[in-house]
Every structure is written in structure tokens, then in C-alpha cells.
Amino acid sequence: MIFGRSERGKPPVEPVTLKILVAGGFGVGKTTLVGAVSEIRPLRTEELLTEAGRPVDDTSGVEGKRTTTVAMDFGRITLREDLVLYLFGTPGQERFWFMWDELSEGALGAVVLADTRRLEDCFAAVDYFERRSIPFLVGVDCFEGADRYPAEAIRQALDLDDGVPLLLCDARDRESVKEILIGVVQHAMAYQADRRQTVTT
């Protein structure tokens, strides 16, 4: 479309907008993921880590981390002319989990980021989406220097249902993150179609 006019006389396309959550433990790469693909300057609500938070902020494995998300990250990506995703990164620390209910309102699905160095940190996010029947996939963020494990071993460690997709990714790489987002949209749409079929039969 050029200056509000569609090409070759086609009517302008009104895009479908979908809300996707990005969740996971503290320091797993949620802010990085949103920033890697957002076509707008991401909205970030990061604050410096302080001495007061040291007793509750476990930085083992992410010792270089200096800030933390206290409300949400927000970004936007156009996957196709007719499909726009709004990305909402959730805060990873337990004391900010009260935000999750608000952020999950109206979400099509979610990405749970996992770090093989701290897999237990994503248990809460997996449990949250399972309990609320929000479709999600697990994206294993392949950090430099992190141990690599077969996908099936990670699936067993997280006790994931067979129907939950698990993909390896790099939260810093735009194309890798796009594959994750396409995966969660496809999974969520298939999940919703299955539920509709179950209701009608």
C-alpha cells in the first residue's frame, strides 16, 4: 500500500491483531526476544537490580544481569500484511507475578522461554498456562556456553504434554524468534480448532 491506496486497485487489508505473551524465569531472555523482532521501539519497564533485592533475586547463571522487568515488555511485529502480533513480555520474578493475570487477558497463546542452566525457573510459567488452558510452546534459548541437550530430554525434564511444541531458538536472532512466533500462532490456532470440535461433538 502506498499513501493509503492499495496496489492494483485492491482494497486495503485490515490486519488481524493477535496478542502473544512471552514468559519464563528471571533472566531467561524475554526482553531480548521482544527487542529482537519488534518493528517499533520496544516499551520496557526495566529497573536496576538493587542490594535490597539480592535475597530474592537468584542471579546464579545470569551473574551479569543488571536490570529486571517490573511490569512488562511490549513490542509489535507484522508477520504478514494481514497478521500483526502484539508481544507482551511478563516479569520473571515471583513478586511481580500478580501482573500475569492482567497481561494474559485476551492472549491467543504464549511462548515460555527456557534456559537449560535453570530449567526449574520456567516451571511456574508452564503451570500457569496449563491451569488456564492457554496454548503455549516452549522455546529453549540456546545461550552461548549453555549445555546442549536433546529436545526429548528437555521435554521429559519439564514434564510437557506431547501436544506442547518445544523448539530451540536464539532470543537475540530475529529470524529464530520469528520461527518461534509463527510456531505459537499455528499451535494456538490448532488448539482452538480442537476445542471447538470437542464442544460440537
Comma- or semicolon-separated keywords:
single chain, 201 residues, alpha/beta, 29% helix, nucleotide-binding
Number of strands: 7
Estimated helix fraction: 25-40%
Give average pLDDT, whole number: 83
Instruction: Output the helix-strand order.
Output: EHEEEHEHEHEH
Stretches where pLDDT is under 50 for at least 5 consecutive residues are 1-5, 52-57
Strand order, sheet with most strands: 2-3-4-1-5-6-7
Query: How far apart lie the N and C ends?
Result: 43 Å
User: For the report, how would you describe the main beta sheet?
Assistant: 7 strands, mixed
Shape: globular
Beta-strand percentage range: 25-35%
Rg from Cα: 18 Å
SSE-based structural type: alpha/beta
Enumerate how many helices there are, as a single number. Answer: 5
Describe the structure.
- Keywords: GTP-binding, Hydrolase, Nucleotide-binding.
- InterPro entries: Gliding_Motility_GTPase, Gpn, P-loop_NTPase.
- Belongs to the GPN-loop GTPase family.
- This is ATP/GTP-binding protein.
- The structure is a single chain.
- With 201 residues, this protein is an alpha/beta fold.
- It is built from 5 helices and 7 strands; from the N terminus they run βαβββαβαβαβα.
- It has a 7-stranded mixed β-sheet, with helices on both faces.
- Mean pLDDT is 83; it is low at 1-5 and 52-57.
